[in-house]
Amino acid sequence: MAAQVEIELDNGEILDPLSSSSSSATDSTILLREGNQEHDVITTCFLSGLGATLANATTIVTIRKKSPNAITTRAKSLAFRIFTEAMARKNNGDPNVKYGWYAGSREDLERIVTYGFSSREIDDDSSSNGIGIHLVPSKFSLFAAEATEEDEEGLRHLLLCRLILGKPEEIGSGSKQAYPSSVEFDSGVDDVQNPRKYVVWSSTMNSYILPTYIVAFKSPRLTVIRNGGSPARLSSPRVSFAALMLSLSKSMDTFRMNLIIRTYDDFRKRKIQRDQLVRKMREVAGDNLLAQIIRNHRDKNKRKFYTCDA
């Protein structure tokens, strides 16, 4: 049996993802309630990374944890410990285990928790720092939150993962590197001294990443924040992209719908900005159809919209 490896968040807090909690052995995740140590540590870590202003306008709705009683969870956790110990032996006792955020829809994150990462999550955009799975350090939750999108219930979702980084190497923006440059290195970062992006190569993504917690939150003031700016003023009713795509799928042919879905997927992977996504949707769907869907959605669901003063 592999020895227990002490893991801590980047802010110094200690977590034990295999601590006992009441759940059915068939549950894939369990709900962590307020007052639970893990719940409170993750809440503090997430909100502190948003900054005071945005944190005060953000509410964590649920935190779910991969069920420790599921046999697959135990098997994956054991494998993760074994890889952690192997990395420690390789790097003079330091496996360099961190926590990182990954953004996605609730369905995507639940799938990752159940089955692991797949080629769909691999970031290979021309402006990315290498080809692999890109995650955000736990203390920079704002950067991960910016990549989230509201669902029809107004919820956004993030996945908190344990990562084995070993010895990372700096990967420049636009790099097409897809594996370590030498046996000396194990992962990638955008900046060795102050990383804001972790890169785990596809060859080790399901060995060096252990998806553990799904955080659902509401943050009405959160928009795409460019160049360190403040949340933009929201002055008109809004429809989530997920709800908009559902309506579009009822009015458009498969070819055009697939174009929008691929663009939306690029946005969720942080390959393109929000304005690029909107521009593509207008180009493919047309302003008339989009305007009609928004009007219908507003008329039927007025209570779901809001106006927010920054």
Describe the structure.
This protein has 2 domains: 198 residues, Phosphoenolpyruvate Carboxykinase, domain 3 (Alpha-Beta Complex); 66 residues. It is an alpha+beta fold and 310 residues long. Strand 9 and strand 10 form a beta hairpin. The relative contact order is 0.14. It is globular. Helix 8 runs antiparallel to helix 9. Helix content is 34%, strand content 19%. This is Inactive poly [ADP-ribose] polymerase SRO2. InterPro entries: Poly(ADP-ribose)pol_cat_dom, RCD1/SRO1-5, RST. Its main location: nucleus. It is found in: Nucleus.
In short:
This protein has 310 residues and is α+β, with helices and mostly antiparallel strands.
State the main characteristics:
globular, developmental protein, stress response, nine-stranded mixed β-sheet, 19% strand, alpha+beta, nucleus, Poly(ADP-ribose)pol_cat_dom, 10 helices, 34% helix, two-stranded antiparallel sheet, Phosphoenolpyruvate Carboxykinase, domain 3, 310 residues, disordered C terminus, 2 domains
